[in-house]
Amino acid sequence: MGNIPVAVLLSALILTTFTVSAETNPKFATVNPVPAAPKRAAEDMSLPMPNGLKGDIEKGRDFYMQNCFTCHGVTGAGDGPRAYFINPLPRDFLDETSRQYLNRPTLFEAISKGRNGSEMPAWGKVLNDQEIANVAEYVFQSFILDGKKGTGRSGK
Fold first, then answer.
1. CATH: 3.30.479.20, 3.30.470.10, 3.40.50.720, 1.10.760.10. Which one for 50-145?
2. How far is 120 from 91, CA to CA, in rounded Å?
3. For 83-104, what is each residue's pLDDT tens digit?
């Protein structure tokens, strides 16, 4: 009789382990499948910069090459010299997902607000809106629209 509670406890522990593992490790997905997130529709790439701003690509390039390339890379592939020491990895602008969702307003907001839990700073605390628009326009024109598909970190 004394072994029954131990067996129940072990069974509960094993079940909990598989449940948690299925959520964090894909090879356990058949034990407790986690539904896939719904696929987003692509963003409208023709949307303008917020507040009627017009980004200056040359000024944006200068700032990017002084401050952003160390993480995002010269080509925008998220493979700059610091990228290998950062977790989560910097955004790969050449990745197909990035190229479908990062329009001007989204880039402007991401640069302005940064990303919590990452090394992406909130540049809105040190740059004005025009300077943020410059960087956003450079990233948009150089990597999102004109970047070479399939050359990013993921190869997609």
1. 1.10.760.10
2. 9
3. 999 999 999 999 999 999 999 9
